[in-house]
């Protein structure tokens, strides 16, 4: 098959995907219309995981991660569209907007802050913007950040909850519910990712890439353009 013929087939498949996506979004809107706010905001994580497991079961191993990224995006946009159509704005989204407006009035200049990752991570950059004078403690995972604040070890925790590329950071939403925490302040931060390799490395020679799940999700379009490259999810 020539490249031109393949492109025509891809265009036809894209048209089918677009039509099915519209149908799915319409159904999501109907579900949200019949649900109260609490039900509408439920992530349905277990159901979604089961769906991803089912639909990717027969896929080639190298495609499964990309398929998961696709379905994560579909779930996030479906929930957002359904809630918007039903007039049910997200509580967390409302809290973010409120924090952006009022945060400057009620926020301390200095604090002990918990961040996930290591020095130089985006969490630290965000913390530095919010707290001009701060002591930052770094933790392995998001749950540990919540634990540090809960135990009084830190005054605040800095965590990502929304991304303009891939939507909600669902794991943080779950932890907010688990610990009954609230948003005290929010900022918007520009995120830029770079692919690092040894000097003079030909990009075609790269066989494996390691990164955090959020970075992988945010760079999914670029990563999918690298044929034969295995993408590995790791913590910071």
UniProtKB/TrEMBL annotation:
PROSITE patterns: PREPHENATE_DEHYDR_3. GO terms for cellular component: cytoplasm. One of its GO terms (molecular function) is chorismate mutase activity. The keyword Amino-acid biosynthesis applies. The keyword Lyase applies. It catalyses: prephenate + H(+) = 3-phenylpyruvate + CO2 + H2O. CDD domains: PBP2_Ct-PDT_like. InterPro entries: Chorismate_II_sf, CM_dom_sf, Preph_deHydtase. This is prephenate dehydratase.
């Amino acid at each position: 098959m020539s490249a031109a013929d393949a492109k025509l087939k891809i265009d036809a498949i894209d048209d089918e995907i677009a039509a099915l996506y519209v149908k799915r979004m319409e159904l999501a809107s109907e579900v949200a219309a019949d649900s109260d706010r609490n039900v509408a905001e439920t992530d349905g994580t277990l159901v979604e995981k089961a769906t991803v497991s089912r639909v990717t079961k027969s896929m080639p191993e190298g495609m499964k991660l990309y398929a998961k990224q696709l379905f994560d995006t579909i779930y996030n946009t479906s929930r957002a569209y359904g809630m918007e159509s039903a007039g049910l704005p997200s509580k967390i989204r409302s809290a973010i907007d409120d924090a952006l407006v009022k945060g400057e009035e009620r926020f301390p200049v200095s604090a002990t802050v918990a961040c996930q990752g290591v020095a130089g991570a985006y969490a630290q950059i965000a913390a530095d913007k919010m707290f001009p004078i701060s002591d930052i403690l770094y933790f392995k995972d998001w749950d540990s950040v919540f634990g540090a604040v809960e135990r009084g070890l830190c005054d605040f925790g800095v965590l990502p909850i929304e991304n303009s590329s891939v939507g909600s950071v669902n794991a943080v939403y779950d932890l907010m519910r688990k610990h009954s925490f609230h948003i005290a302040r929010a900022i918007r931060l520009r995120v830029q990712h770079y692919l690092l390799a040894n000097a003079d490395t030909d990009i075609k020679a790269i066989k494996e890439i390691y990164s955090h799940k959020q970075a992988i999700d945010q760079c999914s379009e670029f990563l999918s353009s690298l044929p034969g490259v295995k993408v590995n999810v790791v913590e910071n």
